Amino acid sequence: MEAVLAMVIGTLYGGGLYLMMRRNLVQLIIGLGLLSHGANLLIFTAGGLRRGGAPILAEGETHFAAAPSDPLPQALILTAIVISFAVTAFALALFLRTYQTTGTDDVNALKETDP
Amino acid sequence: MTSIILRTATRYMFPPLLVFSVYVLMRGHNYPGGGFVGGLFAGSAFVLHALAYDVASARRLLRLDPRDIATGGLAIALLSGLPGLLDGGAFMHGIWWDLHLPGFELHLGTPMIFDIGVYFAVFGVLLALVFALGEEG
Amino acid sequence: MTLLPALPILLPLAGAIACMLLRRHGALQRGLNILFSVLILGAAVALLAAARDGSILVLQAGGWPAPFGISLVVDLLSAIMLVLGGLMAVAVSVYAWFDMDEGRMRFGFAPLFLIMLMGVNGAFVAGDLFNLYVWFEVLLTASFILLALGGERPQLEGSIKYVALNLLSSAMFLAGVGILYGMAGTLNMAQLAVAIGQGGQGGLVTMVAVMFMMGFGIKAGMFPLFFWLPASYPTPPAAVSAIFSGLLTKVGVYALIRVFTLVFCGDTAFTHLLILAGAGLTMLSGVLGAASQHEIRRILSFHIVSQIGYMVMGLGLFTALALAGTVFYLIHHIVVKTNLFLVAGAIHRLKGSYDLDELGGLYRERPYLSILFMVPAMSLAGVPPLSGFFAKLVLILAGLRAGAWVVVSVALVVSLLTLYSMTKIWANAFWAPAPEPAASDRSGMDRATWRRFLLPMAALAALTVCFGLFAGPVFGLAQDAAAQLMDPAGYIRAVLGGQ
Amino acid sequence: MLVLLTICFAAALLAPLVHRAFPRRAGTLLAAAPLAVFAWLGAALPEVMHGHPRVEAAPWVEGLGLEAAFRLDGLSMLFALLISGIGALVLLYTQGYFKNHPQQGRFLMVITAFMASMLGVVLADHLLLLFIFWELTSFTSYLLIGFNHERAEARQAALQSLLVTVLGGLFLLAGLILLAQVAGTWRLSGILGQGDALREHALYLPILALVCIGAFTKSAQFPFHFWLPNAMQAPTPASAYLHSSTMVKAGVYLLARLHPALGGTEAWSTLLTAVGATTFLAGALLALGQHVLKRLLAYTTVSALGAMVMLLGIGTTDTLKAMAGFILAHAFYKAALFLVAGGITHETGGETSVDQLGGLRRAMPFTFACALLAGLSMGGFPPFFGFVAKENWLHAIGRHPGLVAATMAGGAAYVLVGLSVGLKPFIGRRPEHLHAHEIPWSMRAGPLVLGLGSLALAFACGPAGHALIGPAASAVAGETLPVHLHLWAGFNPCLAISLATLVLGIGCYAARPLFGRAAGRLAPLVRLGPDAAYRGLLATTLRFAGWQTRMLQTGILRDYIRITVLTAVALVGAAFLHAGGIRGEARLSPLSLRIGLVSVLMVLATFTTILAKSRLRSIMSLGVVGYSMALLFTFHGAPDLAMTQLVIETLTVILMALAFHHLPVFKHGSPARMRAIDAAIAIGVGAAVTVLVLAALHVQTPTEVSDYYLDHSQALAHGRNVVNVIIVDFRGLDTLGEITVMAIAAIGAYALLKLRPGKGDTP
Fold first, then answer.
1. Nearest CB to A83; choose among C137, C144, C168
2. Domain-by-domain residue ranges, chain A?
3. D366 with D490, same domain?
4. Containing domain of residue D362, as a range?
5. Cβ pair B75:C3 closer than 8 A
6. Cβ proximity of B61 and B51 under 8 Å
């Protein structure tokens, strides 16, 4: 199964980057979104897919009867999801503001600051 | 048309969403849930309101500036790390109290207070973002 | 030790919270900004004092033993970086007191500044790879906003490039973290060092190492990954450029040093050679970029790139002397570069321009400002006996001892070109007569205020001179830090406790 | 000696303050510092001349083995006396020369700092210390040459001299480091004793070459000589000091210093003799055609420096003595002539050309006297010290016909220049427009002392040889050399050659206009000279710099992303090849239908996103990717993740819709070729990532850490939801950072949308 997911991850990374190399600001940010999905899935997969239940103890128990899925990658991904949400939201505001200021959403037109 | 449906839905959804968000927050330590999701639900209630009516009305409903709420959440989270120091532990060392209230027992710890901080931070942030973007145009 | 190593993170957060709550009070925030910068510096100095004898301070957050909780680790390198960060924070916050406009102040300059410091400091003390990622995100997000705050067109354009490329770098870093976790089942750097040191994964480690090299290389501004830097650094207000130039890329360098001395040191013939080659190209490409520019902050920005090459060169050579050179270079560079950007800001304040064609006559009009430019500029170019000379000398010495002729030759040529660009600024902005004699002073400050305004620059310039004249103790510190880096066992023992 | 240098540097730092407090006496007051040095040196002279050098050392940077180590032997003594003595005179002279000049304080500061640095060069006993002072002289001379900074020529000349000397300095640094490495010590006194071992070492030739390049650039040897005449943009006191008597001799000093260690080989003598002789003749030849006072002097300085290197290169005991004598003679007459030239220009209101000068003897009798003394010494007329030195030189080179002929030719040029500066401006008819006064008192000490000195030394040549020249030559040779100088050595072939040279020189002087015209005709050739090469090289470098920067820093974000991504793919690929593929057993779980279906859905949604032509469609398909992620999380026992992902995805779609509502449809397409290239890059990335993940799956993940969480979550952290416990407790610090990121992102987005340049500021 992991091999399939590995290819999905590859697709997400490749697709994200392809979009980032387009000329529209919207595509840039959507590309970033794909990229962060790819990174999250990568952590999830590389951390090892254990086909167990949720890492939540039932009430009254003190030990997991069967090994549940690995909780640590889940915690990391949770953090990563929220961070990328915040950053995406900021980027949205930035791009919106840029569009309002420069009047273009063409990335190629934004080259004044370079020599 | 859609707006009427949405408004009606919002009217019914709004209070349960808020209550549900607190519920998700409080049980997060033992069941799926927690401050993140709780905060997101609470924020969603107001987002829904903003979409159904407008941002200004949602702001009025909230009264507080969402950035202050986020800051407050951050402050709660930061402060929750300090009691552990008094106990001689490291920063963010968990301290737990058993509160015997009439009727039921509450098992309360600094990590849960931390989670409450997360709840408010996420709640405030979400609204600040949505309001700011919603007020454009 | 239950709190001290966390203070560099918590103090700025507390300050930021206070500033956010007081966001309507610009003046109060200016004061709080300075106050908390001083406090951070104090905490950093205390940490350096504690780590000076070679002991490594470890705080296990939440009291969870490593590798299960998050370890905050302060070794000598971390402590040095923290102190430098604190110094720059104080200098720049004082500068911002005078220079930052009210609008930016009310829309969060102070909290963002402090949060950025929080991220920077967090990166310096993180003993856990994912935690390092989080601190990187903290400092990056804060820097995104600081860069764009104010919303002038060049700022926005620069920000887009900065944001896009740095998020790309974060994605690579995060992917590396994920794979590393998959291999070693831990995120604690000390335990990762143990796990990878035990071997068995061979080539995969090298591949992951390259991922980290890319991720940190982008943040450090190495060739050919530095595009975002010259595109964005010259755009925000002077105080922002200054703190960026002093600290941000250096966090990338710090992270490179940390992981490539602690975790990835099994295949140095490949990884460190790659780093060395990157260092040489970075130096050269950056300095050529600088030579082609005609605007002070652009010149300085390209020079950051070039100087990063020197710092990374020490890591690539990977000897104790070379690493000591890198540490010394970091110390030197952070002080000097921040200072140069501040001086550039003062020039802009005075003349309303950064463009060399529009500047002139400053040597005649402003002798003190001239000295304040000359000292860091010549230090950057490596004129003895300023700090930059010793920094370069150590690296060249280390390079010659290691027989790395090519990179040493590049380093020597680059230092000549650095001198060239510094004299270009000097000759055009200071020596040459002003193109139009009328415009003399736009600063809007009286003499006394102007003097106070120059105070942070004077302090940093004095520091540069001291680092040169008293290079002995400073270099001794760098050597001790390098010795710790060359002996990861001490770090591992301190974190994991005798395992 | 450290104390002396500290005094001098302190004097430099105080100079502007002294000047502000005593505007008319600043030079005199500051001259106290070099005079103190001079007196101290004088006191040490008896000891040193008998072969007992003074040594002192203090630690500086212990980690580098850098010490503040000084050593005063015969060679250092000769140079130090000249530096401090002439330094004091120049400071006095400056006071008059820059009377009422607003920047006199700065000039005094820099020239005093230069003096201190130069003293450091000749006193240092540690290679690095020597280098530090060496660079400081380059740097201070940059400031001095560019002193008239509002003139573009001055700035260019300053830059040129800086770049050339610092370039040489870098070679020198490499050479010195290698030298120390081979010798095993930084201390000069230690290195000089190891000559034999050094000369046989494999690195001997590289060291020699590197050190020589450093010395040649500093001492303006061919083909690096061009910066020195251009450096005449400096104010005259600086020229007199730096470009005749001190700084340019640093290279000669260094070579002489290292002679016991590096000298005496075939390579040494060939290189030094050839370069020195070329410089000697070229300088003399170029001097013939000049008419500007200072340039006449500058070219003969180049020539004289060449002569010193040549004599050093020949390297017999006699030539070493001759060299030491010539250094002394040259310092006296050349500094005096520069000061005279400065006086003339100063008092005639800026006249610099010999051709425009004449008949000043009445107006400036004092200057005339000094000028004549120095000029005759330069020409080698008896009874001046220049004559003694010349005799000694001729004696040393013996009968070698080539050298004798060269000496005669060069000597003739010196006669011409000596007379042109020392005689020509004062005799003949005064041009009508020329008005002049005598130089003021404060400017008289220098020319007088140095001019008279040229005469007095000749009569005291015996003691001078014994006390100064002998010890200096001994230090260069590495053995004790007695020196006996005589003003009158009797009739011998040397005298005949000397006299013949004088006659030839006077003839040349008479034919001076001829040379001027010839030089005018040959002027186009200068375009092929090293000066042009310097400019060409600089321009080429800058063009290349501009080109590479335009190529790299295009300003287009997509290019940046492309290059970054390509680099990543290339490096990961290289690492993959280096590692030789993946080894080990993959740990794969069995295929599952529902996961397979979700995977297919995700891939399809990704492609829809990529190919979408409208904003809404791309946002929606991105949402589908997110919801599929949530499904995957559900299938793998991650309810917290699934829930969060679900809400976040919804909110993201809402936010994007809110924001993109304002943006136009996608209208900027790329050409097909570009799209293909990008697709290729993207596929490369996808493949690289896939391989990485697969490779990671070949390693069994240890579960120690997650087992700890699972086992202790309930007992130690009082929570049954392990993921939540990790987030708020085990790894709570991450979460603290994370909500900080969120908070500032919100503040940032808010500020970005609300704060506009030029608009009001209501938070």
1. C137
2. 2-50+73-105
3. yes
4. 277-334+350-510
5. no
6. no
CA distance linking residue C148 with residue C76, whole number of Å? 34
Q: Which residue, A44, A32, A45, is CA-closest to A86? A: A32
State how far residue A56 is from chain B, nearest Cα, in angstroms. 7
Within-domain flag for D14 = no
Is residue C347 a contact partner of residue C365, using CB atoms and an 8 Å limit? no
On the 0-12 / 13-18 / 19+ scale of CB atoms within 10 A, D148 is: middle
In a domain, D361, yes or no: yes
C-alpha–C-alpha distance, residues B120 and B70, integer Å: 6
Are C50 and C110 in contact, with CB atoms under 8 Å apart? Answer: no
The verdict on residue D252 lying in a domain is no
Distances (CA, A) of D741 to A25, B71, D646, D729: 23, 12, 21, 19
How many domains, chain D? 4
Predicted pLDDT at D360: 86
Q: How far is CA D303 from CA C315, D277, D308, in A?
A: 47, 9, 9
CB atoms under 10 Å from CB of C31, counted, come to 15
Size of chain B, expressed as the number of residues it contains = 137
User: Side chain identity at D739, as an amino acid letter?
Assistant: I
Residues D304 and D440 reside in one and the same domain: yes
The nearest alpha carbon in chain A to B128 belongs to: A89
Q: Which domain holds residue C175?
A: 4-496
Chain A residue with minimal CA distance to C181? A47
Is the pLDDT reported for residue B137 higher than 70? no
At D260, phi and psi to the nearest 5?
-65, -25
Give the least confident one: C202-206, D139-143, D614-618. Answer: C202-206
pLDDT surpassing 50 at residue C278: yes
Tokens standing for C18?
């206070």
Across the interface, of D596, D701, D745, the residue whose CB is closest to A47 is D701
- Cα torsion D676, D678, D680, D683 to 10°: value is -130
- Shared domain check, D562 and D489: no
For residues D622 and D681, membership in a common domain is answered with yes
In this structure, are residues C350 and C366 in contact, taking their beta carbons and an 8 Å threshold?
Answer: yes
Full DSSP string of A34-88: HHHHHHHHHHHHHT-------SBPPTT-SS-SS----HHHHHHHHHHHHHHHHHH
Residue pLDDT, tens place only, C329-378:
999 999 999 999 999 999 999 888 899 988 888 888 888 999 999 999 99
User: Per CATH, which fold does A2-50+73-105 belong to?
Assistant: Helix Hairpins (1.10.287)
For residue D747, the chain B residues in CB contact (below 8 A) are 67, 70, 128
Contacts of D60 in chain C (CB under 8 A): 471-472
* Residue A59 to chain C, least CA–CA distance (Å): 24
SS3 of residue D187 by DSSP: strand
Name the domain count of chain C. 1
Q: How far apart, in whole angstroms, are the C-alpha atoms of residue D58 and residue D73? A: 18
Per-residue pLDDT, averaged over C151-158, amounts to: 89
Q: Are residues D293 and D404 in the same domain?
A: yes
Counting Cβ atoms within 10 Å, is residue C484 exposed (0-12), middle (13-18) or buried (19+)? buried
Contacts of B9 (CB under 8 A, 6+ apart): B48, B52
Least confident of C300-309, D232-241, D494-503, D690-699: D690-699
| The CA-based dihedral angle spanning residues A67, A73, A79, A82, taken in that order and rounded to the nearest 10 degrees | -90
Residue found by looking up tokens 């290079």 in the block: C471
Q: Which residues of A touch B125 (CB under 8 A)?
A: 86
Nearest to C214 by CA among C175, C267, C157: C175
| Closest listed residue to residue D172, CA positions, set D219, D125, D110, D119 | D219
Map tokens 């919603």 to a residue. Answer: B134
Please tell me the distance from the alpha carbon of residue B90 to that of residue B82, in angstroms, as a whole number: 9
